[in-house]
Amino acid sequence: MYELSSPLSLVKGIGDTTAEKFTRLGLSTVRDLLFHIPFRYEDYSNLTTIASLQPGEDGTILATARSVVKIRTRRGLTMIKAKLQDKSGSIDSIWFNQEYLLTTLRAAGEKYFSGTVKEYRNAHTLNSPTIEEVRSGEPLHSGRLVPIYEETEGLSSRTIRSLIHRILLDLPPIPETLPTTLLQTHTLPSLDETLRVLHFPKEEEGLSKYHRRLAFEEVFSLLKEARHRQFKLRTTPTIRHLSLTATQQEEFIQTLPFHLSPTQEKAIHDLSSDLTKPYPTNRLVQGEVGSGKTIIAAFGLYVASVNNAQSVFVAPTQILAHQHFQSLKRIFDSLHVPVYLVTSDSKPDTSSPNGVFIGTHALFEHVKTLQPALVVVDEEQRFGVRQRETFLAGKKKPHFVTMTATPIPRTIAQTVLADRDVSYLDEIPEKKKDILTKVVPQTKRVEAEQWMNQQVESHHSQVFIVCPFIHQSEIDTLADIKSAEQEFKRVQHVFPRRRIALLHGSIKKEQRVRVFDSMRQGDIDILVATPMIEVGIDIPNASIIVIEGAERFGLAQLHQLRGRVGRAGQRAYCFLFPTEGIQATRRLRILCTNANGNTLAEEDLRLRGTGELLGTRQHGWDSLRFASWFDTKLIEECKKAVAETENNPSLKQKQKMIQKRSR
């Protein structure tokens, strides 16, 4: 008898070798395997006679194999041919490269054969039907709705099906994980019934309610976990109690060389309220490229400083850290706030009681000497989970603010990020113009490059050329996709009079900083780079960006890259060059007609999934296996269910007991 927590290696018929294969599917326990739900079913429930078989239909026959022969084809394939016979007639059947079937086919007795009937030379045939011995009880691989699973090398659906069937026969009723009251209120079947029916249904009609049960619990659990994290944070003391006067807030605003937008004003108001509470804030500031997220961060850092407390600002790259240091120093110098740049090469003086420390992941190495009251992380998804938790490890925690220009679909914000307060900066300064975006076929390349050369000559425009890879790929299917190093050499030849530079992650950090300083000072006309420039890089004079192999990027990433140009309000252009031989895809055409990041994020989520949306899976944003991010009705229903459990004391107690049992 098995338990849900039993390792798969203990299941009869699996062992260590097969268990290792299951790990490739992310499955290691009996529970994991039972939640490995079929993604479709083959309908072999039509148990019929040979005479009744019709071309194009799926069916199962109970027949005897006659005249079983092995044939070697001219192409070197092994073909097994047999005549299947029942009382109504006979039909030919063929299997390719399945020599192991000879023993099964030559064994005496009737067998189930399931497959699709084909017509060949005016005769009916069964090509590669499944075969199952006749045993007592219902057939498993034929004569029914046959579950088809995600497979891996060495693990077929037939094998997975047999093992799940064996487990379910030996497994006692599966413990329920949702309160009975919740099941009744939301008309949900039990978990035991759900898993048994989904693996081996009698009919396809009505399966949706069992899929809905798994989807409901998945979203419900996400929301419960988020609420638990929020509750836990709100019962945690801050490292330092902060306060702020209206005069201090106004002093900061008056220092800025521009007027705040209404959404910036609201974000500052909300953050001001957050930072003066006795528990740590956990706020996400999401805004389009150029919407002014850094100013919101600067305000938070300023609040910490006027309270004589330290704060840190973590950037994903050294280039971006330098850029933030330069821009924030201009603001903080007039406010008499000390600012320090921390890199892997520098050992900062952490004794400044009210210092603002700006840097990359190198800041994580100074956790013990720094006691920040506020941590700001730019593009948080680019850091590892453990790195992000570094500053949050103590009993007392700092205020935590994250920023991202990656648009977040509303349904993700409502579920995975439900433990955070979110500020949306959805207004772009008036000087920021729409960027003309076009898909350019390879046949128009020469014409486009001549035009770019004229723009550099007459308007002193600066150009980014972005390539997916650093080096040319040795994989045949990727060989045609341009690399940064390869393109750098080509561009030098095409634009002999222009100042051209190369930038990618393998170049030393010091050189990267020098290249960007030169670009910012106008000493470089064309910068060939990898997508490392997509986050936060600010070159005001850059007005043209060329993206090679554009079909390899998601919409959100293309939108980020496009935001690198036109930052000073000038007319800007984004040219998307698909790889040679690849036509403009629907995604690229969407980018050309839409400048709204949130709309693009929704479309990216629909087309590519959450892992592609962020280029990372560490967030858990890709965690929905049964539910859909677009099922807003289900998400709203689960939010109400969470509220029910929070407001019902007896239900909360039951939920605690259930969670203990399920562990």
Task: Name the overall outline.
Answer: globular
Overall number of strands: 22
Task: Give the termini distance in whole angstroms.
Answer: 18 Å
Order of strands across the main sheet: 12-13-11-14-15-10-16
Round the mean pLDDT to the nearest integer and report it.
86
Secondary-structure class: alpha/beta
Rg, please?
Answer: 31 Å
Helix content percent band: 25-40%
Oligomer: single chain
Q: Spans with pLDDT under 50 lasting ≥5 residues?
A: 474-478, 611-622
Percentage of β-strand residues: 15-25%
Describe the structure.
It contains 22 helices and 22 strands. Strand 21 (542-548), helix 17 (555-562) and strand 22 form a beta-alpha-beta unit. It is α/β, with parallel strands linked by helices. Residues 474-478 and 611-622 have low confidence and may be disordered.
Short note summarizing the structure:
With 663 residues, the protein is α/β, with parallel strands linked by helices. It has 22 helices and 22 strands.
